[in-house]
Amino acid sequence: MKVTKAKFIRDSFNYFSAVVVSNVITLATLPVYTRFLSPSDYGIIALFTMFGGLIVGSISFGLQGSTYRYYFKYCDDMERFRSLNMGNLLFSITVLFAGGTAVWFLSGKIARVAFNGGLEPGLLMWSYVNGCLDFLLGYMLFLLLAETRSRAYSALKVVQVIFTAALSIYFLYFLSMTYMARIYAFLIAKTALLGLAVYLTRRLFAFRCSLALLGVSLRFSLPNIPLNIVGLSNSAVDKTLLSKYSGLTSVGYYNFGENLSGSLKMLVDSIEKSWSPYFMQKAKEGTTDAKAAIIGRFYDVAFLFIFCGLCIIYFAEEGVKLLATKEYYMAMYVVPLFVFHYLFGVISMLAVNQINFSEKTKVFLIPAVVSMALALVLNFVFIRLYGAMGAAAATALSSLGAAIVELYLGNRLFPLEIKKGKLAFLFLLSGAFTTPVYFLMASEINMLMKLVIKLALLGAFLGISLKTRLISIEYARRFWQMLMIRILPERT
Predict the structure, then answer these.
(1) Which of the residues 18, 183, 303, 432 has the least number of beta carbons within 10 Å of its own beta carbon?
(2) CA-CA distance, 290 to 281, in Å (whole number)?
(3) Phi, psi angle pair for 472, to nearest 5°
């Protein structure tokens, strides 16, 4: 389906609406979770979700990405795509079953060596099952994204959040569980949603598969295997080292701060779901005007993300104190660092699509190795000195390093007229306006006075952005209209 301007706006609105609803539910349930769960319980939950995702992501060959890419290539020959899709899914399930067998036999040793007994062997097996459910559900959701079925995708995401929250509260309140309440809720909700997602995408599968087409998918995905392993290991380094050197409580602070800043990630992900098809279609046109449209849309979206990120940073203190008990207050210092981790991902949002369009996916290994090396060194140093804050700082800096390398490679493979100075100034300006927040967090100033200062600083950021033309007055006007009519601004 062609992504017209109207459909881009409509799909973006659907994805964004799902983000808003999911975020409201997540924030509304945080006071309940922090009442029943300690920071160390949050640490166990974080390790639980991390382990399964790491193992499954490392062995799954990334075939969901291949399926997404070849949907656009074979969209005019759906029988061919259905055969490819079925082969990819069956191959993935076979690999996951083999991986589960290995985890079953090695779970005891992994629990002792990697987690110092922080996770029991039985919990590691359930963690792997959770990772498998995440992969399979994500596979089906990728198909909905490729078809630009934004309503179905958004509905599934909202239902998942509601169902998971309802089950969690039931297990916590009525059955007096602790961290297992969240774990059981994850497993039950994802199983139910997977069945529904399979039903919604059933017409994209055939009752046959082709080894030749599976070979095509594997040739596309094989260069991504080292990338997936390095990237996932990178995401696991922080929590693993935190657990080893600072304990489960620090992992809990880290995870809580990550969750609180996750609203920005949800916003980035929601726009990216309409951004990627838009990029692919404009890139396929290949004209100068099409490339200019890509860059224009990118800068509009980047400013939106950075401004929203600053809002989250400025009101992180109020959010933590409103939603959590005192034992979680340390998490507010982690939030700004995580926000920048997600903001640096905005650069990757452009560069990754440039590389994917070129089909030279082998180069993904380079930024992944850079990120992994930075993460290992920085986490090892910073965690010993600063605990959860050190881990968050290491995560942000390693993301920046990877994003810079990706931007360089992406522009070599699919050149665009990117104003790198403008992009750098935007990030430097947002960093300068973040610094005062830490002084405000540590101060004993009245909360009302803090609120006035923060609003004044946000106003100053907007004023400087207009003055230096990081954002035009016309775009600011349309941004305000977006807030009023609840759609994304459209660049003329």
Answers:
(1) 432
(2) 9
(3) -85, 160
